[in-house]
Amino acid sequence: MKLIRSILTVGGFTVGSRLAGFVREVLTASLLGAGAASDALVVAIKLPSFFRRLFAEGAFNASFVPLFAGLLATEGKDAARTFAEQIFTLLITILLVLVLIVELFMPYLLPALVPGFEKTPERLYYAIEFSRVTFPFIFFISLTALYSGILNSFDRFAAVASSPMVGNLAIIAIVFGLHAQFSSAGYAFAIGVTACGVIQWLWVLYPAIKKGMYLRLHRPQMTPQVRKFFVVLGPAAFGSGIVQINLFIGSWIASWLPTGAISYLNFADRLNQLPLSVIGVAVSTALLPLLSKQIRAGSLDEASASQNLALEFSMFLTLPATLALTLIAHPLVSAVFERGAFGSEDSLSTAYTLMALALGLPAYVLIKVFTTGFFARQDTKTPIYTALAGIVVDIVLSLLLMGSLKQIGIALATAAAAWVNALLLGYLLWRKGHLVIENRLLMFFPRLLLACLGTGLILEGLNDILAPFYEGGELMRASAVMGLVITGLAAFFIQAYLLKIARFHDYKGRFAS
């Protein structure tokens, strides 16, 4: 079984990507702070990201990867490549039309998406300017997703997992080289985002060609495989669209908050995304093609074992990460972002927002794992219903809490909605007979919670001891936080070993199999 090895391959490169992303966010905080240009840049990146979830991630992967992997396993490489070429042609056609329309109507689209910006004309001006530069990113990142799905189906995860890291490094290089050339450094970041899409596409194109998957344009044909692709894509796109609409509703709500609130949410989310990306995305990326093949081959016991292992492995890493992000949020934010235009008050506001978001971290990862169980069976409808329930909770709580808690209320609403979504997904997966909880997993969770409790007590005590160092310079703050993190990790793994949670010898055996 190669599941854990695949997870660690994806997760390892994702760590590199997120570290590069941290450098990018540190640059953003230092050069833009939490002001009008920073808020506008967040919106300019969210706009192509909205369509990215449709054309380049969840919905597309849920439709393309199981069909492509199935054809590859049953009919061979030629049939799979023909199918990929048909989707390639349709994707390019749709994306070119989309980019042209959005670019033309950008001055009318942005005021509708973030109406609160009209009260601060500087934010609206920058949002329109930056969005026109960033939006072509969707074209290149969608092509990246197509070739990434092909490579993942061949169990080639390294190039796919490393491409975001290369893209982030490109953004950093462009910002360093160009930020002084513009009236606002936000323009350099916007150029870097689109360049990032181009470089990520080229990064996965070459290994795909080496696997014999050079895709050519064809006249679009509605073959049985293409029809099936759209039958699966429709509900998945609708579901992803609902989730993205919810995110824009969040931006719509946040646009009415004072300048800086959107930036606080963004910086907090970047820190929260590190464990989510390393764990949740890595697990789901490795699990989807494996489950698809096992289910297609009728190996249902193996599929169940894979899903249980994914749950155990992901929670083993997620719960301690949640603990750390809530207990040491302020020193962590201060060490990462507090410099240049980003001051101590910005650190405190971002830290409280991070604590609220982190409460939902286990749920975000569970959603990734549970959704994969449905997608591997080409069931894209069920996740729509659970997402809708989460969205209702998110919107209602955001409106109720934003008045008193501002962006912290929106973060709490997001975390609560994630738990509603995750619990419903898990229940329905179990109800359909696709999730069978093994005794090993039932014995695992109480011991994991005990190890987290012990680690939390150690972190609390050490946090008090190191508090004076947080008031020092950048190097002193960073050293104190690094010491806190290393001690916390050591304490957790020692307890995990003593409580026999991780079963390291078992994981080692699974690596070799």
Q: What would you note in describing this structure?
A:
It is a single chain. With 513 residues, the protein is an all-alpha fold. The chain has a domain at 35-259. Helices cover 83% and strands 0% of the residues. It is built from 20 helices and no strands. Helix 3 runs antiparallel to helix 4. The longest helix is centred in the middle third of the chain and has 36 residues, at 261-296. Mean pLDDT is 83; it is low at 507-513.
Which descriptors apply to this entry?
513 residues, mainly alpha
Principal-axis shape: globular
Number of helices: 20
Average predicted local confidence, pLDDT: 83
The overall strand count is 0
What Rg is obtained from the alpha carbons, in whole angstroms? 22 Å
The biggest sheet amounts to: none
Between the first and last Cα atoms, what is the distance in angstroms? Answer: 5 Å
Determine the fraction of residues in helical runs and give it as a percent range: over 70%
Structural class: mainly alpha
Q: Are there runs of 5+ residues with pLDDT below 50, and where?
A: 507-513
Helix-strand sequence: HHHHHHHHHHHHHHHHHHHH
- In what range is the share of β-strand residues? under 5%
Pathway: Cell wall biogenesis; peptidoglycan biosynthesis
Function: Involved in peptidoglycan biosynthesis. Transports lipid-linked peptidoglycan precursors from the inner to the outer leaflet of the cytoplasmic membrane.
Keywords: Cell inner membrane, Cell membrane, Cell shape, Cell wall biogenesis/degradation, Membrane, Peptidoglycan synthesis, Transmembrane, Transmembrane helix, Transport
Membrane topology: Multi-pass membrane protein
